[in-house]
Design brief:
Blueprint: H1 18-25, E1 31-34, H2 44-52, E2 59-63, H3 66-71, H4 78-87, E3 95-101, H5 111-119, E4 127-130, H6 135-138, H7 140-151, E5 156-157, E6 160-161, H8 173-181, E7 197-201, H9 206-212, H10 214-225, E8 231-235, H11 242-256
Parallel strand pairs: 1-2, 2-3, 3-4, 4-5, 6-7, 7-8
Helix pairs in contact: 5-7, 10-11
Length: 275
Amino acid sequence: MWSHRAWQGRLLAHPLAPQERLRHYAGWCDAVEGNTTFYATPARDTVASWARQTDPDFRFVLKIPKVITHERRLTDADEPLRAFLDAIEPLGPRAHALWIQLPGSFSPADVPTLSRFLSQLPRSHRYAVEVRHPAFFAEPRATRLLSEALDAVAAEWIPFDTTAFFASPPTSDAERDAWIKKPRVPLRALALTDRPIVRYLGRDDPTRTIEGWQRWLDIVVGWLREGRSPTMFVHTPDNADAPVLARRFHDEVRSRVPELEALPEPIPVEPLTLF
């Protein structure tokens, strides 16, 4: 995500060598979704370069490869899981959570499989699960079954809030594409652990994105006051202004929780000059 084309030359310097792109992104935000790991396990040397470009307190929420979650559906996956865990080892404390995103067909009937998988994972990492089957949100028994499975291993439930996005029809090509691809699930705003993770999808119009996250301001401020350490990811369909919006959200939270640490100062896009 730190190589997003729309940011190059506008938010991030351009051109940049691949081994510098994450360092510049980390000047905007102190966390990133590791979505590329869903498609393939990275080389260990590549991950080591990520560590070199970020401070120890930078947060990676890394998606577990789809071969484990979607193709093998959490069964007979020891070998790819071992390869993935070995590859990400250089991140050390930067691996904030390993993100288990499950397909929409993964239903309450599959919770025992998830429980077995979670129970066999090394306790050296924290885990967070994202489900998309509507029953987990609509049926109290299914909600309880999943919550109990996650509680047993201190894993978090990641909500993907698309309610603001789906509140009205799409108005751009990026929104029309997201309209087809993104899940429509009810809002969930409960934390199971001291490290809740939220994924929020707004609109391409920044004003509407900001309007849609107002409820999350109250929730995140509440979590901080409870002593939790939340991670909030802000998306829009085109993601063109996502880093700017993420900083705006952080600033709005910080205005209500002044002790919250400020985000880093972005690296200038253009070289500094004397005049």
